Amino acid sequence: MSYTEIDDRTGAGDVRVTESRGWFSPGRIINLVLGIVVLVIGAVVLVRTGVDSDLAHPQTTIFSVPQSGIIGLAEVIAGLLLILSSLTEDARPVAAVVGVIAIAAGIVAMAASPTMQDDIGFGPSTGWWAIIIGVIALVASVLPSVWRVRRNVAAR
Fold it and tell me: What is the per-residue pLDDT for 12?
């Protein structure tokens, strides 16, 4: 929120105009919360699976979603990008890009063969997880900001 105070002294008399402007962006808050959740889940995956030469194995399961270290690493990066995109209004397109990439990755994950799923370390439910994250990020990134302007004019 930003507040601006303007003093306008006219020849007819002193007038004080106080203007307060504020905005509220539900999309940025949703992306901030989503980014924190995805970052924490990715960090838990990395702690459980470890970061070594083979990020595809071992796998762990979080909320019935099988994930490997490489999926956890992708979640950490996506979570950080979502958090960073929620910091300013100008960075909202970053959340939209993260959402589109997550949706595409989820579709590819669901269409992948069992061999590919085992090689990378995920399952079909991981694809649904990515699609859900992507849809939430994409929808939140296009939600409009709510602007409020209040102006008080008072004679001195």
Answer: 54
